[in-house]
UniProtKB/TrEMBL annotation:
Gene3D superfamilies assigned to the protein according to its UniProt record, in alphabetical order: Glycogen Phosphorylase B
Family per record: Belongs to the glycogen phosphorylase family.
Subcellular location: Cytoplasm
Source organism of this protein record: Desulfocicer vacuolatum DSM 3385
Name this protein carries in UniProt: Alpha-1,4 glucan phosphorylase
Domain of life where this protein originates: Bacteria
One Pfam family matching this protein: Phosphorylase
BP GO annotations: glycogen catabolic process
GO MF terms held by the record: glycogen phosphorylase activity; pyridoxal phosphate binding
Catalysis performed (reactions): [(1->4)-alpha-D-glucosyl](n) + phosphate = [(1->4)-alpha-D-glucosyl](n-1) + alpha-D-glucose 1-phosphate
Function per UniProt: Phosphorylase is an important allosteric enzyme in carbohydrate metabolism. Enzymes from different sources differ in their regulatory mechanisms and in their natural substrates. However, all known phosphorylases share catalytic and structural properties.
One term under GO cellular component: cytoplasm
Length: 813
């Protein structure tokens, strides 16, 4: 990495003053903190634009290959702090503001979180953009500019309440509207078969309705300030031409209604993580994104080329899960219908350009769209999908002549009562690369999810273990630790996280360990303040901070964690067995609004917290707190304050996890199953520096079918005591039988997520952990080794792998 190029800050103060006076029309004395946040951000944005323009000229001049990352979610979180750090001007700006009588921290706190994502998948996309820019690579994001991001969560009487998150999608200082580059998207309508001049078949897509996609760009500056790429988000607008026509027919209300329905497309992010919505509007959203992105990508390509011969040499497109899988059909439509290429040529270009990442094996998350909906929304694309499938099945008959069953399994169209398009099959057939997001996950994609495709095209399949950006998740979120690291080993780690290895030898230096532990203590104090402010609970920073922060989902097994807490409660209450160390169990996470059991689990956590925290004896040893409204800005406070990171999904179900990496880099010790990237974290930190428990994937697979939770229950008085308590009035307050459904799912409906199978091993591991925690020196060394040995989980490493092995993308410095 070349040294940081610092932008010229001479006009910075004036830009802020001008903004307040001439954009807001106020004297400085009337400006609110939010006004000033906007003023500072527009001054920063000016600097970003200079870098952005220079970057684009550099790319154009060299006619570089570009990678476009298409994703329904980009969970960026607040941007001011990161932009300042990446440009290397945070301290200079702090000083300028101080001179003006302003406090940068107060202004930064005014920035709303752009919550344009649900969880890991969307946050991964944001980490990737940071790494691409920091590696000076031409990588761009395409997404939707939702008016409403993920709902805001509040807790009332222990229940989750959802409130709309209306973020300033049209007025954020980071968004630059580019009305001049709008995209026209046809949708709905029908196919009319006509004959062309030579008498050939010529399908005409007619009577479509036109939606306009207006691009809004967020500049993404890399660390060092050399390169700024962009994230382009589209808002949907009604097409004026179309509406005016109806308007002229005198039907004013219909015209307005049409306008409303078009603009609905970018109104709201679907709030489910690892679960498919299956609604028509969602399909329209997916198509809208894909159509805008493909048009824009082709427009940019054609600025420098006259034909499509170079297309796949100059363009790579990565599909973030199957949500943008319609890109396969849309790129074909564009090349064949719009640009007049022959099918075979268009197909080669399409498959050489596209690559697909799978993010989940959960059956409920695998997208399938009923043909009837696809035909209604995008009739021409359905024809194209049929043609792709026809040709695909033809090649299969050659490869597997006597295997009709296999053809059925592999077809893009699923037969049955309701025929459906299998989006993963479409993505695999249309891509030259298919990857999973952790070693075990990629293995399961090949052997469990789509073994037939692996058999046909083994060379297409590969692994790209996820990563997280060290700029946000260490430099920005944990300034104390970042400073200590830089003082000790220099600042190269910011762009080469593997250099954290050099910290290992410092573990023998008691003075260093002491400093390292002090920083964790300060971060815990900061987190304790957050807990007091948001959950109204006093917690002791000297207790173990044991944190389970992620979406609430049965497979992530917050229930298992709660079972362990209840078990600990009874051990103290009934058996007088005092734990080795006091512990604070901290939860944070949202449940999908329609996910009944996940929401009930939030209520259970609060029920247990009420009982435990109020118990005079138990509360000396156990406290339980739920921090509402988990989001990026809170994660930045929560993660650095963790001693223990709960990563306890049923083995085989968490594709990778990325929270697990953020915790480990910040020195938390993982309590985890052999699942997702936990396995690679265990490899990296070594078995003595992680707590692994429970059944592994093979064992879980072997148990399925014969698994009987009743048998485990019958043999374990401890589990009986815990589950009976869940099903008793103890945690219910005045609501009788409140938690029966959670009890029922485990006891009477097969315990699909195998909580009981892993309970004893979890309890044992937790006992070991408590014992180790009180050995201050041993614990400090363990946490240090977690930081020192997890450099490979930088998203810079992940991006280098994609760039070299999938995209053919080069550094452009
Ligand atoms: C992940 C999703 C997801 N996998 C459907 N799948 C969605 C599926 O709105 N939807 O319909 C939204 C999200 N998200 C996560 O991706 C995995 O569960 C994590 O294990 C993984 O770390 C993350 C990034 O790869």
């Amino acid at each position: 990495m070349d040294s940081i190029i610092k932008p010229d800050l001479s006009g910075f103060e004036n830009t802020i003053r001008d903004y307040v006076r001439y954009v807001l029309g106020k004297p400085m004395t009337d400006a609110t903190s939010t006004d000033l946040f906007n003023g500072v951000s527009s001054a920063v944005r000016k600097l970003l634009m200079d870098i952005r323009i220079e970057t684009e000229q550099r790319y154009d001049r060299r006619d570089v290959k570009r990678m476009h990352y298409i994703s329904m979610e980009f969970l960026t979180g607040p941007l001011l702090a990161n932009n300042l750090l990446n440009m290397g001007i945070q301290e200079d700006v702090r000083a300028i503001l101080k001179n003006m009588g302003l406090d940068l921290d107060i202004l930064m706190a005014c920035e709303p979180d752009p919550s344009l994502g649900n969880g890991g998948l969307g946050r991964l996309a944001a980490c990737f953009l940071d790494s691409l820019a920091s590696l000076d690579m031409p990588g761009f994001g395409y997404g939707i500019n939702y008016d409403y991001g993920l709902f805001k969560q509040s807790i009332m009487g222990g229940y989750q309440r959802e409130k709309p998150d209306y973020w300033p999608s049209r007025s954020s200082p980071w968004l630059i509207a580019r009305s001049g580059e709008k995209c026209m998207v046809p949708v709905y309508g029908r196919i009319v078969d006509t004959e062309d001049i030579e008498g050939g078949y010529n399908p005409m897509w007619s009577e479509w309705k036109l939606v306009v996609g207006r691009p809004h760009d967020i500049p993404v500056v890399g660390y060092g300030g050399h390169t700024a790429n962009r994230l382009r988000l589209f808002s949907a607008w009604a097409s004026e031409d179309f509406d005016i026509q109806i308007f002229n027919e005198g039907d004013y209300f219909r015209a307005v209604e049409r306008k409303i329905s078009s603009e609905n497309i970018s109104k709201i992010l679907y709030p489910s993580d690892s679960q498919e919505a299956g609604r028509e509007l969602r399909l329209v959203q997916e198509y809208f994104l894909v159509a805008c992105a493909v048009q824009d990508i082709i427009r940019i390509y054609l600025k420098q080329h006259d034909d499509f011969n170079q297309f796949s040499k100059k363009v790579a497109i990565q599909l973030n899960d199957t949500h943008p899988a319609l890109t396969v059909a849309e790129l074909m439509r564009s090349l064949v219908d719009v640009h007049g290429l022959e099918w075979d040529n268009a197909w080669d270009i399409t498959t050489q350009t596209l690559a697909y990442t799978n993010h989940t094996l959960l059956p409920e998350a695998l997208e399938k769209w009923p043909l009837a909906i696809v035909e209604k929304v995008i009739p021409r694309h359905l024809q194209i999908i049929y043609e792709i499938n026809r040709r695909f099945l033809e090649t299969l008959t050659v490869n597997y002549p006597d295997d009709p069953q296999r053809l059925h399994r592999m077809s893009i169209i699923e037969e049955g009562d309701e025929k459906q398009v299998r989006m993963a099959h479409l993505a695999i057939v249309g891509s030259h690369s298919v990857n999973g997001v952790a070693k075990i996950h990629s293995h399961l994609v090949k052997t469990g999810l789509v073994p037939d495709f692996y058999d046909l095209w083994p060379e297409k399949f590969n692994n790209k273990t996820n990563g997280v950006t060290p700029r946000r998740w260490l430099l920005s979120a944990n300034p104390g630790l970042a400073r200590l690291i830089t003082e000790s080993i220099g600042d190269k780690w910011i762009v080469d996280l593997d250099t954290l290895k050099a910290l290992e030898s410092l573990g023998r230096d008691p003075a260093f360990l002491e400093k390292f532990s002090m920083i964790k203590r300060e971060n815990k104090v900061r987190l304790a303040r957050l807990i007091k402010k948001t959950a109204y609970i006093d917690v002791d920073p000297d207790s173990i901070f044991d944190i389970h922060a992620k979406r609430i989902h049965e497979y992530k097994r917050q229930f298992l964690n709660v079972m362990h807490i209840i078990h600990g409660y009874f051990m103290i209450q009934e058996e007088g067995v005092i734990p080795t160390a006091p512990r604070t169990y901290i939860f944070s996470g949202k449940a999908a609004p329609g996910y009944f059991l996940a929401k009930l689990l939030i209520r259970l956590i609060h029920g247990v917290a009420d009982v435990v925290n109020k118990d005079p004896l138990v509360s000396q040893w156990i406290k339980v707190a739920f921090i509402p409204d988990y989001k990026v800005s809170l994660a930045e406070i929560i993660i650095p304050g963790a001693d223990v990171s709960e990563q306890i999904s049923t083995a085989g179900m968490e594709a990778s996890g990325t929270g697990n990496m953020k915790f480990a880099i910040n020195g938390a010790v993982t309590m985890g199953t052999m699942d997702g990237a936990n396995i690679e974290i265990a490899e990296a930190v070594g078995p003595d520096n992680i707590y692994i428990f429970g059944h592994d994937v093979e064992e879980i697979q072997a148990m399925r079918g014969a698994y009987d939770p009743g048998k485990i229950l019958a043999q374990s008085p401890h589990i009986q005591r815990v589950l009976n308590a869940v099903n008793s009035p103890l945690f219910c307050g005045w609501e009788n039988d409140l938690f029966f459904p959670l009890f029922d799912a485990v006891v009477n409906h097969g315990d699909y997520y195998m909580n009981l199978a892993d309970f004893q091993s979890y309890v044992d591991a937790q006992v070991r952990l408590s014992g180790d925690y009180v050995d201050k020196k041993k614990w400090a060394q363990m946490t240090l080794l977690n930081t020192a040995r997890t450099g490979i989980f930088s998203s810079d490493r992940t991006i280098r792998e994609y760039a070299g092995e999938v995209w053919g993308l080069e550094r452009q410095i």
